[in-house]
Amino acid sequence: MTTETGTARAAAAPAAETLTLGKALNEGLRKAMENDPKVLVMGEDVGKLGGVFRVTDGLQKDFGEERVIDTPLAESGIVGTAIGLALRGYRPVVEIQFDGFVFPAADQIITQLAKMRMRSLGAVSLPVVVRIPCGGGIGAVEHHSESPEVYFTHTAGLRVVACSNPADAYTMIQQSVASPDPVIFFEPKRRYWDKAPVDVAAAPESWTPLHRARVVQPGEDVTVLAYGPMVKTCLEAAAAAAEEGRSLEVVDLRSLNPLDVDLVVASVERTGRCVVVHEAPVFSGYGAELAARITERCFYRLEAPVLRVGGFSTPYPPSRLEEHYLPDLDRVLDAVDRTFAW
């Protein structure tokens, strides 16, 4: 059941608005809740406070405490409760307050949420969205700047996506809520305040499908693959490279599992070179899977090995040192330079 307040806001909304990524997520959640009374929002401080990043701001006021639920500080209990609600026909959207807090819920996510459809031979689906603010760049303390995506991309039964800009945040969160399967939804916390136009009136049929990648910067010389917080960094690198006469094609993967392999392969076959960029450590990171897939599919079209740029194989450092840990424009451009050394 939609509220009069929510309905009025939707009716008055212009076709395109300039929104921050955080506000775009808020609007997407609001739209999903208006469209389906079975959509619930749950998590620590998501109600009265509106979330530590204010992504759920105003939702409890407009939809009530029965649909926007402040939970105890117990991630395993939050996800476990969401599983039970999904079994009863609801569509819970769970917020993990910070990326490093997801690990107490790993048992519920990996051994229950991901496996129920297979366990029931397809008779039972669990439409649960687990929202996880991810990555560094905000000067946070320990356990608040992790990049745990590979734990979940390795887990069969989970869909794993990562938004990088306000327009995708608005559409992808709604598509994730509508998915019949559980979705791990990564939000780049240092991009929450980035602004861009969002067409809130566009028909869902016109949206990019949830599990499609997108070329966000066409180029000819090198394919640069990224997702989440690193997409903006790679676009900045592409702009700097253009001043030196090199044309980088930046691909926003958007979906990590399933992966849009065909778009990736088409881009790499066209450029002949590839650099993969992510915040997580390079060793056993998501880039390793991408490099292997590309080598298998594009071996005879590659002019150089697939190179990876990422964090170091260390625990995330204190905030005073994080600018040295996080991949930046210079490290991306250095990898681009190295692809031309072959």
Structure description:
- This protein has 342 residues and is of the alpha/beta class.
- The chain is built from 13 helices and 14 strands.
- The chain has helices at 4-12, 21-35, 59-63, 75-87, 106-113, 116-119, 149-153, 166-178, 230-243, 261-271, 286-298, 322-325, 329-339; strands at 16-20, 39-43, 68-70, 91-95, 129-134, 159-162, 183-188, 195-199, 214-217, 222-226, 248-252, 255-257, 274-281, 307-311.
- Strands 3-2-4-5-7-6-12 form a seven-stranded mixed sheet, with helices on both faces.
- Strand 2 (39-43), helix 3 and strand 3 form a beta-alpha-beta unit.
- Helix 9 crosses helix 13 and helix 10 (261-271) crosses helix 11 (286-298).
- It is globular, with a radius of gyration of 20 Å.
- Mean pLDDT is 95; it is low at 1-13.
- End-to-end C-alpha gap: 61 Å
Q: pLDDT average, as an integer?
A: 95
**Helicity range:** 25-40%
User: What order do the helices and strands follow?
Assistant: HEHEHEHEHHEHEHEEEEHEEHEHEHH
Strand adjacency order, main sheet: 3-2-4-5-7-6-12
Shape: globular
Summarize the structure.
It comes from Actinomadura keratinilytica. The chain has 342 residues and is α/β, with parallel strands linked by helices. 37% of the residues lie in helices and 20% in strands.
